[in-house]
Design goal:
Radius of gyration: 16 Å
Largest sheet: none
Helix content: 55-70%
Low-confidence stretches: none
Structural class: mainly alpha
Number of strands: 0
Mean pLDDT: 84
Number of helices: 3
Shape: elongated
Order of helices and strands: HHH
Distance between the termini: 54 Å
Strand content: under 5%
Length: about 60
């Protein structure tokens, strides 16, 4: 059974504005949506796990 009135999904733009203004919940939702993609892009550029995840420095 599907809901007749689904809760609208917040747009990335509205979440980004809220995150920029310090809303940690909005940042967490963006991170949940895009964290893996950001890591994949970072790793693709540096090819070092610790640098890609932010825990290391570029050698």
């Amino acid at each position: 059974m599907t809901s007749r009135n689904p809760v609208p999904r917040k747009t990335d733009a509205s979440l980004a504005r809220k995150a920029r203004d310090g809303d940690q919940q909005a940042f967490a939702e963006l991170f949940q949506r895009y964290g893996d993609k950001v890591f994949d892009e970072a790793f693709g550029m540096v090819r070092e796990w610790d640098v890609a995840d932010g825990s290391g420095r570029v050698s």
